[in-house]
Amino acid sequence: MTMPDLEHALDALTGRVSSLREARAAYPADLAPTLDAALAELDTAAELLAEAREELRKVPKRAGGKKDGAQRELKLLRQVFRAFPVPVIVLDGGGVVRRINPETSRVLGSPDGYLVGRSFPLLVDVSRRAAFRSHLTSVLQTGQPSAFETRLAHQGRTHTVQLALTRLTMPGEPQQMVAAVALPTEVQLPEPGARRPEQTDGALLLETAKRQDLLVRMARLLLDEEALLRPVALQRATRLLAAEWADWVIADVVRDGVPRRSVVMAPKNHPLGELVRQVEAADPAGSQVVVQVLERGSGVVQEMLDDETLLGFCADGPVLTTMGAGSMVCVPIGRSDGVLTLVRTHDRPPFSLADLAIMQEVGLQIGLAVRAQTSFQIRSRAADALSASVAPRNLPDVPGYEAAAVYHPGASVGAEFYDVFPVSGGWGFALGGAAGKGEEAASVSAMVRGGLRVLSAWDSDPDLVMRKVNEALVTQGTGMFVMAVAGFVKGREIHLSSAGHHPAALLQPDGRVRFAAGGGVPLGISPEAETGVERLTVAQGETLLLYSEGLVSSRDERGEPYGEERLADVLSRCAGQAPSTVVKAVEADRHAFSGGVVWDEIVVFALRGV
């Protein structure tokens, strides 16, 4: 075949392929004759390439650098390859793409040269990959051409094609090659030179806005108060990503230095079955890409998966194969606190470098949220422990009396305490709080409460106990002072010692209310304690009530304080009621007065003679 003959045959083939496209568009319901004709043209194309190859082999080789006949034939063959009107892909024995012609790039929607060096079987429909590899092996071993129908998927496009494989022996290549000619049979190819829709300025702007919107929504979700109170940050974040950005989302969190699978989000239309359980059970430590991201502290994107074993194995084989993965992005969570993996299937556009950048930021946000959540929960447990140290779980039975209390935590870790405990020859009680908020104030209150309880085992006078606790508090040098009241119960008599605390209220059976003297100076101010001492008799049917600063200082919407007068009015309506009823009535009235707002801790303690 001479060069003019080859050029003429190529022009004729191009014209016939164009005619077949027009025929398919004109008669979409009658594809069988068009397909038969297309297959005939495919055979013609294969014969044309084979003849050109044989002619090239027949040309004698010449030494030197001057252009000779063989070089001209080789140049012509390259021109034929570039101008061929159907997709042609040259593969090596392992199925890796070595050459593609421009028509292949146009049909599959990939940049020129993008597929070179990548595994071609990854473009083949999952259900046909094993068959493709068998055909490829057969062609290489027997030299006999093979043709079969399959689907190719790339860049969100799916093509049903008739794929023809022919063995090639290429000069300068140590191994045999395979030419794959793909004739689309069910897709309308874009017009030559048409710009890909995803490359338009409007589409790029829309994608950028979508990524920024993701960051805003993710930040809002992770900063929600519930994300700090409960371990929901990771679940919420992966759910958001699975809804819009990926088919599969996997979060692996490092615990005790080892990555452990924490969350697996499957596609919405995917049943919660064996595959999901297999992905959940797969060991992330056996995943090459997870280990790589943790070691390097930076993410990776696989726009087109070259190795389906990157995410490890499950019972059915490589995890990515069972998912039908087409592309993947994998980023660190926080500062190597874990790994976030997003997977898209073949029928969706692949992840890009822009997606990698945005997911790196998402991973950082999730890491910060998880760390904040952990820190908050640690502090919350510490606060709960402090709260438990300033209030008894249950009130003991005091002979001759009924006791009840309500404790309402404030907006922050407070410092109010109350207690009922055995003393030398009877029972004692205490109530008070450090001036201040937070963990330090709560720890000082816990120290005072413990001191009153311990020293009361040896001293029968609450005032002596109060003075010793004051001395210890001053010696500690905390810089805080504590308002407190302590009482020892001996029969019907109660011996009170007050250190700057509000006076106790005594509710009588007829509804009258009188207040004790109270007084004194808070503990921790001076080495010499100044206390107010008083003895009260609580007869049968009378109720002694002690309360915290948070109760009487509660304010309504006008800024007016609750005060002791309103307290006395509520108590007078509770005459003859059980202590539990009394404390609940006081708390309910305060709640209605302040509109439910609680800033400081509220403690109400009642002791009724029976």
Task: Write a structural description.
Helix 1 runs antiparallel to helix 2 (31-58) and helix 6 (201-222) packs parallel to helix 12 (353-390). With 610 residues, the protein is α+β, with helices and mostly antiparallel strands. A hairpin with a 2-residue loop joins strand 6 (248-255) and strand 7 (258-265). It has 17 helices and 22 strands. Helices cover 41% and strands 23% of the residues. 35% of the residues are buried. A five-stranded antiparallel β-sheet has the order 2-1-5-4-3, sandwiched between helices. The chain has a five-stranded antiparallel β-sheet with strand order 7-6-12-11-8, with helices on both faces. The longest helix has 38 residues, at 353-390.
The proportion of residues forming helix, as a percent range, comes to: 40-55%
Distance between the termini: 122 Å
Rg (CA only): 42 Å
Report strand order across the widest sheet. Answer: 2-1-5-4-3
Shape: rod-shaped
Topology diagram in text:
Blueprint (H helix, E strand, L loop, with lengths): L2 H24 L4 H28 L10 H15 L4 E4 L5 E4 L1 H7 L20 H14 L3 E9 L2 E12 L8 E8 L16 H22 L2 H5 L3 H12 L3 E8 L2 E8 L8 H8 L6 H9 L3 E3 L10 E2 L2 E2 H5 L1 E9 L4 E8 L7 H38 L10 E8 L7 E8 L2 E9 L3 H18 L6 H15 L5 E9 L2 E7 L5 E3 L5 E3 L16 E6 L5 E5 L1 H4 L10 H10 L6 H16 L7 E8 L1
Antiparallel strand pairs: 1-2, 1-5, 3-4, 4-5, 6-7, 6-12, 8-11, 9-10, 11-12, 13-22, 14-15, 15-16, 16-17, 17-20, 18-19, 18-21, 21-22
Helix pairs in contact: 1-2, 2-3, 6-12, 12-13, 13-14
InterPro entries: Bact_Sigma-Reg, GAF, GAF-like_dom_sf, PAS, PAS-like_dom_sf, PAS_4, PPM-type-like_dom_sf, PPM-type_phosphatase-like_dom
Organism: Nonomuraea insulae
Pfam families: GAF, PAS_4, SpoIIE
